[in-house]
């Protein structure tokens, strides 16, 4: 299963992404991930969620090749809607979501992690929003929840990445551990949350979302509008073709 959801005896639900080779999610993958998190919200026996991934890295964003091999704008619109649904499902999950991040966390991966409640990372983890390289905009809303404003802007404009170790000083990453210890570290935090009365924790999650200074759903949707403009202007196709090594018809 590309998206797997398992409820443990300690009431921690582990949601795992597995989309080889780099966890670049296709359109359906984003919706499947959203569905898994929505299920966690509805299930009162779920007290906390660990969001993790198999493979080389946590998440490489959207599947650019799927987009370029699909005629018209169906894949683009699908990716926009799918990412919005998945990010929203993380943010609005009725229980806290602990992101366990290893390797690369790029683009859409930052959207997931930026909306999580707690982030635990391995010592090889790094974060970035390389959208400008593919003629898109997005996830600045979520990167701004991980780093200070000026660093976010620099990362956005340059497509640079930032290591998890640097995020420790901002408090956006709780702890950085060896890769082999990542799952245990994330499960430990989630288990600590899950041990509390879930009625209180669910109320706390709703309360904390209610006092957030930025509406992440509206903010991200605003960003997506500029991506659509760039696509209509032909800029995005040109840059994605170069990235994917194909033309619009899928020829190399």
UniProtKB/TrEMBL annotation:
Check the record and name the Pfam families matching this protein: ECH_1
Name the domain of life this protein comes from: Bacteria
Keyword terms, alphabetized: Lipid metabolism, Lyase
Gene3D superfamilies to which the protein is assigned, alphabetical: 2-enoyl-CoA Hydratase, Chain A, domain 1 (3.90.226.10)
Look at the named UniProt entry and state the broad enzyme category this protein falls under. Answer: lyase
Q: What is its EC number?
A: 4.2.1.17
- InterPro entries registered for this protein in UniProt: ClpP/crotonase-like_dom_sf, Enoyl-CoA_hydra/iso
| GO molecular function per UniProt | enoyl-CoA hydratase activity
User: What family is this protein classified in?
Assistant: Belongs to the enoyl-CoA hydratase/isomerase family.
Q: Please report the name of this protein according to its UniProt entry.
A: Enoyl-CoA hydratase
